[in-house]
TrEMBL record:
UniProt source species: Panicum virgatum (Blackwell switchgrass)
NCBIfam families: PRK05610.1, uS17_bact
Taxonomic lineage of the native organism: Eukaryota, Viridiplantae, Streptophyta, Embryophyta, Tracheophyta
Keywords: Ribonucleoprotein, Ribosomal protein, RNA-binding, rRNA-binding
CDD domains hit by this protein: Ribosomal_uS17 (cd00364)
Protein known as: Small ribosomal subunit protein uS17c
The keyword Signal is assigned to this record: no
Length: 97
């Protein structure tokens, strides 16, 4: 198997992520391109992947019943929105009064 590139859709497990991989192929009967999505479970040892990160997966030996891939590298990180803390908003409120 060769390495695949996909988008992380779930990181709720410990040291595991679910990656959606899209592929296009030409349908001979309909004479158009069709997109198919496959979901793979992959091992993320450092637990650094977030949802919507673009990652490259390398094949490995079976790590569990469904995990046969390892996250090789993170190609593109997503900028996470960090809401302002509650203390900062309360300080602004007291200054306005």
């Amino acid at each position: 198997m060769k390495p695949v590139v996909g988008i992380v859709v779930s990181n709720k497990m410990q040291k595991s992520v679910v990656v959606a991989v899209d592929r296009l192929f030409h349908h001979k009967v309909y004479n158009c391109y069709v997109k198919r999505t496959s979901k793979f479970m992959a091992h993320d040892e450092a637990e650094v992947c977030n949802i919507s990160d673009r990652v490259r997966l390398d094949p490995s030996r079976p790590l569990s019943r469904h995990k046969h891939w390892v996250v090789a590298e993170i190609l593109r990180r997503v900028k996470m929105y960090v809401p302002p803390s509650a203390t900062a908003s309360s300080e602004n409120y007291t200054k306005a009064q």
